[in-house]
Amino acid sequence: MIEFRQVTKRYDSDHTALRQVNFGLERGELAFLTGHSGAGKSTLLKLIMVMERPSAGEVIVGGQVLNTLPRRQVPYIRRHIGVVFQNHQLLFDRTVFDNVAMPLEVMGTPARDIGRRVRAALDKVGLLNKEKMNPLQLSGGEQQRVGIARAVVNKPPVLLADEPTGNLDPELSADIMRLFAEFSQVGVTVLIASHDIALINDLGRRTLTLEQGRLVSGVGAGGGGRG
Amino acid sequence: MANDPRRQQSRGAKSARSPWREQAESYLSHHRKVARDSAQKLWQSPIASMMTWTVMGVALALPVALMLLLASLEGVSAGWESSARVTAYLNDSVSIEEAQALQAEVADDSRVAEVELIDRDTALGEFRASSGLEDALDYLDENPLPHTLLVTPSESSRTADGVEMLLTVIEGLDGVERVQVDLGWLQRLNAMTDLLGRAVWALALLLAAAVVLVIGNTVRLSIENRRDEILVAKLVGGTDAFVRRPFLYTGAWFGLGGGIVAWILLQLSLWWLSGPVERLAGLYRSEFSLNGLSFDGALALIIAAMLLGWLGAWVAVKRHLDDIEPGEIAGG
User: Fold this and answer.
1) Phi and psi, residue A83, nearest 5°
2) Chain B contact for A11, CB < 8 A?
3) Is the dihedral angle over the CA atoms A144, A150, A153, A159 positive or is it negative?
4) Is A68 helix (H, G, I), strand (E, B) or coil?
5) Nearest-angstrom CA–CA distance, A4 and A25
6) CB-CB: which of A86, A106, A113 is closest to B238?
C-alpha cells in the first residue's frame, strides 16, 4: 500500500532529512515510526501526503508513483489518505459535525450521505452526542478523537498519524491506539509517528526507526519490530 | 484506489438516481451553499463590508455619471445638427421675382430638402413684432432687410460636413450676398464631446483597475483570516477550485453591493441636479435633460461590478492561495 524505494529528501545542500529510505507497508498493516525529533519522521509523512516531493527515489502509494504526479492530481491522492495531527488542526469556527464533514464536502458527497457518514465516524470514536458542540468545548482527548473521526470519515485506505498521543495521558493514549488498531483490522494501512517508546513497546507492532534520516530498523516487511 | 478518483466517488453514491445526476446536484448544492455562506460572512461584518461597497460604488458611479452626461450632450448636438438650416441673404438689388427663381434653383439641388423664401416686407414685419424696436424702425426711410432664403438640408446632408458643402454651393450663386450657418459652435461641441468621451473611458479604465485592486486587497485579508480553513481543506483533498470558490463568491458579492451603491449614488445625484439642469436648459431654450440609467443600464452596471469584484478576488486568490500549502503544518 505504501512503498519507499531509495528515497532521499534534501532541503538545502547541507540539510538532508531522509537518506535512501526503503520500506513497504501492506494493506491492513499497522506500524510505528520513531526517532528523535529532527530524525525525519515528519518529512517521511509529508512525502506520503505529497506535501513534499522526494529529491531522489520513488514514493508509491496505492500503486501510484507520487514523484511525477501533476500538482492538480494531488488533492485526489489526499482524499485516500486520512491524517491525524498532534495539534488536531480542527476549525473552531464551526461545530464538531462540520469539522468531520469537511473531507466529504471537498469530495462533493451528497448532503444526506454526509449526515449518515459523519455520524457513523463520530459513533466510532464515541462522540456521537457531541456533534453540535464547538471543538473548543471539548477536552484534549476528545478533540483528538474528532480529528480521528475526520481522518476516517471517507474511509481512506491509508491513515497517517503524527504524534497523535503527544498531549494525552497514558490512559487516553491507549484508547486512541486501540482505535487505530481497530482500523487496521478492517484493512486500513496505519502509520503512526511517535516517540512514546513505552507505548510502542506495549503494543509490540512493527516499528520503523529513523536516525538522522536513515531507517535503522523495521525495514523488513511485517513484524520487523515485534518482541 | 487512487487511480480513478471519479469511480471512487460514484461508488459512494449508490442510489436509484444515476451517479451523474447525483454528482451534478451535489455540485450545484455546494455552489449554493458557498454562495450563501460567503454572503452571510459579509453580513456578519456590516461596517467593513459597507465601506468596501461604498468605495466601489463611488469608483463606479463617477465614470458612469460622466458617461451619462456625455450621452445627454451627444443627444443635444444630434438634435441641433438635424435642425441646422442655412440662411442665405440676397443682394439688396435682387427683386422678388429673381429671388423666387433662385429659390427654385436651390430647391432643385438633391441635397436640399426644402427652401423657404422670406421676402423683405415679411421679414421686416416679423422683426418689428419680435424685436420691440417698432419706434426706431419707423424712422427708417426704407426697408433695410434683404430677401432671405431659408435652406433646410436633406436628411443625408445633415452633418457638419454636408452642411458645409451645401454652404459653398449656395455661396457661389449669383445674387447671394452672404450665407450664414451657425456650425462653428456645433463643431466645437462635437470636438469637445469626442475629447470628453476619451477622457471618460480613460478614467473608467483607471477606476475599474482601482476597483479590482481594492477588492483584491480585501479578499487578500479574508484569505489571511481563513488561513486555517484553507490549510485543512487542502489537507483533506480540496481541489484548488474548491478552495478558491468561497473567495470568488465573496468578490462577486462585493461587486453586487458596489454596483447597487453606485446606482443609488447616481439616482441621488440625478435627483439633486435635475432641478437646476432644467432651469438652465430652460434659459437656453434647450430640450437638454440629464438622463438617468435605464433598467438595462442599471443591470449592466451591476453585472459589470460583479465581474470586476470576481476579477479582483481572482487576482488575490491566484496570488496568495498558492502560497498556503499544508507543508508548514507539521514541524521537523
Assistant:
1) -130, 140
2) no
3) negative
4) coil
5) 9
6) A106
Reported residue count of chain A is 227
Phi, psi angles (nearest 5°) of residue B43: -65, -30
Q: What is the pLDDT of residue B327?
A: 61
**Rounded Cα–Cα distance for residues A81 and B36 (Å):** 30
Strand, helix or coil for residue B227: helix
When CB atoms are compared, the residue of B8, B13, B330 closest to A162 is: B330
Measured distance CA(A134)–CA(A206) in Å, rounded? 36
Burial class (CB in 10 A: 0-12, 13-18, 19+), B159: middle
Structural element, H or E, at residue A100: helix A96-107
Q: What's the pLDDT tens digit per position in B226-248?
A: 888 898 998 898 888 899 999 99
Strand A56-61 vs strand A2-12: parallel, antiparallel, or unpaired? Answer: antiparallel
Task: Return the DSSP state at B194.
Answer: H
ipTM: 0.85
Q: Which of B231, B235, B243, B323 to mutate to test the interface with A (most CBs of A within 10 A)?
A: B235
C-alpha cell at A151: 481522518
Q: What is the pLDDT of residue B329?
A: 52
- pLDDT per position as a tens digit, A1-17: 899 999 998 887 778 88
What count of other Cβ atoms lies within 10 Å of the Cβ of residue A20?
15
For residues B267-283, one letter each, b for 16 or more C-beta atoms within 10 angstroms of the residue's C-beta and e for the rest, the string is eeebeeeeeeeeeeeee
Cα–Cα distance for residue pair B291/B149, rounded to 1 Å: 37
Parallel/antiparallel/unpaired status of strands B86-90 and A81-84: unpaired
On whether the CB atoms of residues A147 and A160 are closer than 8 A, the answer is: no
Query: What predicted TM-score, i.e. pTM, was given to this entire model?
Result: 0.73
The C-alpha angle B194, B195, B201, rounded to 5 degrees, equals 90
Going across the sheet that includes A81-84, the strands are A81-84, A158-162, A189-193, A30-34, A206-211, A214-217
Report yes or no: B232 at the A interface, CB cutoff 8 Å. yes
Q: pLDDT by residue (tens digit) across A165-221?
A: 877 888 888 888 888 999 999 999 999 998 888 888 888 888 999 988 888 887 665
Report the Cα A18 to chain-centroid distance in Å. 18
Of residues A52, A86, A109, nearest to B12 (C-beta)? A109
Answer yes or no: do B327 and A79 touch at CB < 8 A: no
How many beta-carbon pairs below 8 A join chains A and B?
Answer: 102
C-alpha cell at A153: 470519515
Distance CA A219, CA A206 (A): 9
* CA–CA–CA angle A181, A182, A188 (5° rounding): 85
Report the distance separating Cα A149 and Cα A127, nearest Å: 9
The H or E element containing residue B152 is strand B148-153
CB contact under 8 A, B235 and A157: no
DSSP 8-state symbol, A139: -
In eight-state DSSP terms, residue A136 is G
Three-state secondary-structure class, residue B142 = coil
Which of A197-211, B25-39, B150-164, B293-307 has maximum average pLDDT?
B293-307
Count of other CB atoms within 10 angstroms of residue B151: 25
